[in-house]
# Entry
Amino acid sequence: MTQRSILITGCSSGIGLDAARGLKARGWRVFATCRQEADCGRLRAEGLESFRLDYADEASIADALDEALRRTGGTLDAVYNNGAFACPGAVEDLPRGALREIFETNLFGYHDLTRRVIPVMRKQGHGRIVNCSSVLGLVGAKWRGAYVATKFAMEGLTDVLRIEMRGTGIDLILIEPGPIATKIRENAVAHFEKWVDWENSARRDQYVSLRGRLYDKKIKKDAFELGPEAVTAKLIRALEDPRPKPRYYVTTPTYLMGALRRLLPTRALDWLVSKG
# Structure
């Protein structure tokens, strides 16, 4: 059997790194891409095939896909769109530039890579494109408006593309994790500092508490938090199940919120989420 191949984004740590290691252990040929060349070098040192892909840089997306295809002889069985970041802050305090920046990575980059790989998968007659969404692609949460907006948009775009790809042999799949132990909070600090003028906000007093959560070292797990390996387990199913589901939930909060969104009136769900 020919070795299956996959290109994964955001492999410097967390979900992407665990996915790359886990799939390589299962016999997949993994192209583990990172935004920074230094991280790629670290992954190569541990035996992974790694090169640069930055969702905000169109040329790097094209180059990364070309490199993967060069190494396989022109085929690619799967793509896992995973890389993303958060920009915490109240929606009223998020300037246009903040939304433009996060959408470039969290949505437009996914879309760009997906469009580029579809002709390859059409030609070979099969392929799976897996997009890493979130429980925040199902329900909103305060202080996370920018991230929520990108995930809601991704959910809609993926749903439509899945319908449009019927009959092509190309599957579009969403993975929707809840709280996972990653560096996303740590990495969000720089974006918060760049874009949110919290000292001049009407919510200045509330930001004192938010900044504490951002800057303080995390000493215990969030409620229901799982490790990245829980996401990898669902990714394996998304890639290897003969007939994959359109969605794979990860963690108890995702299952709970998925059910509550269907069952509760909007105001009741708003009240519940506002308590979190």
In short: Strands lie at 5-8, 29-32, 78-81, 127-132, 170-177, 247-250. The first strand starts at residue 5 and ends at 8. The CA atoms of residues 174 and 247 lie 5 Å apart.
